[in-house]
Write a structure and sequence with these properties.
364 residues
Length: 364
């Protein structure tokens, strides 16, 4: 047997085993390292600009950039999370008393509904329907509270992960090019395919930040303000939920504010109905069509279904960070299959011939 083949096989086995051992050892820090790389890629233009202004002092520019991330992102996020969790608990506790009060006290709309055909047949089930709806809202609210508590409370673990992320960011900003060159060197792909994956990663990350996150924050803020003006409890909580829901094509924030509008109508609060219809429906609802083409452009080049399932799957796997990570993983999934199709093109069948043969068989 060829000694060179044995040597390389043994080396490859050691690389796999030791790498797996090392990754298993640091697995609790992998998310922090990944987020550090993502944020570093996002703020790289600002870091480069600062480096030029500081006459090439790259370490100082990295320190200033990291401090900026803390002041502009992490501290506001910590305050928001605290408010959201507090209001989520308040909303969850107020659902049952509200349902009981709604059952006992007839409203203006409830009186008008008596003139609707078949109202008498529905009337015996009215209290049950409202009670079940209240239980559903309570269940959804509890799920959201648990999710927020699990992934976004400023626990010791979250604080420690944030510190690790910021520490790694400093080195990524200072020597990111060197690390990236090393990673690409050890990746046994053609240069064009490596560049293709890298471009896909950066473009989708940029599009996700500019599109999903920024538009979600704006829509959530407008809808939260609308809920506050309408007198609905927990506007920060509901605004945050609607910011997350904005990722869903076609429906988006309407999943939350339309039921709220119906409830306000049943309570006879028509001023609140007008506020939600104008701010949530007309203003926030049209922001997506207005801003997304300008912010995102052709960066994602993904179908809406891939964006939707990538985001929802990312949230289920990574928590709220999945809003950013999910679409990136989906884009890399598409890209790696495109690279596979190009690399093995001569081994893959001609689809038109296969489909034509199938049509001929069906006709026979």
């Amino acid at each position: 047997m060829n000694k060179d083949l044995i040597s390389k096989t043994t080396l490859l086995g050691l690389v796999v085993v030791i790498s797996a051992l090392f990754l298993s050892m640091i697995h609790q820090f992998l998310m922090a390292i990944f987020m550090a790389g993502l944020f570093s890629a996002m703020v790289a233009p600002a870091h480069n600009w600062l480096t030029k202004k500081l006459k090439g002092r790259e370490n100082l520019a990295s320190i200033i950039t990291v401090i900026g991330i803390v002041l502009l992102v992490l501290i506001p996020l910590a305050v928001l999370v605290t408010l959201v969790v507090a209001q989520a608990i308040n909303v969850g506790q107020s659902v049952t008393p509200w349902v009981q009060q709604f059952i006992k006290e007839p409203t203006t709309v409830s009186v008008l509904l008596e003139n609707v055909p078949y109202y008498q047949e529905i009337l015996p089930y009215r209290d049950i329907i409202i009670q079940k709806a209240g239980e559903l809202v309570g269940t959804v609210t509890s799920f959201l509270i648990d999710s927020l508590s699990s992934f976004t409370k400023l626990t010791i673990n979250a604080v420690f992960s944030s510190i690790i992320m910021l520490y790694v960011m400093f080195y990524f900003l200072s020597m990111g090019d060197v690390l990236l060159r090393k990673i690409l060197y050890f990746l046994p792909l053609d240069d064009c395919n490596e560049q293709r994956l890298l471009d896909r990663f950066t473009s989708v990350a940029r599009a996700t930040i500019k599109g999903t996150v920024i538009i979600g924050i704006i829509q959530g803020a407008i809808c939260g303000i609308a809920f506050a003006f309408a007198g609905i409890k927990g506007p920060v909580f509901w605004g945050t939920v609607m910011a997350v829901m904005s990722i869903i094509p076609a429906f988006g924030t309407a999943i939350i504010w339309v039921p709220a509008l119906i409830v306000l109508a049943l309570l006879g609060d028509f001023s609140g109905v007008v506020i939600l219809a104008v701010l949530c429906g007309l203003v926030a609802g049209n922001l997506d069509n207005l801003l997304r083409p300008r912010l995102v452009g052709k960066d994602t080049e993904m179908h809406d279904l891939f964006v939707l399932f990538g985001t929802l799957g990312g949230i289920s796997m990574f928590g709220l960070l999945g809003i950013m990570l999910g679409p990136i993983v989906a884009a890399l999934f598409i890209t790696i299959w495109e690279i596979y199709g190009d690399a093995f093109q001569k081994y893959l069948p001609n689809v038109e011939i296969v489909l034509k043969k199938r049509q001929d068989d069906d006709q026979e």
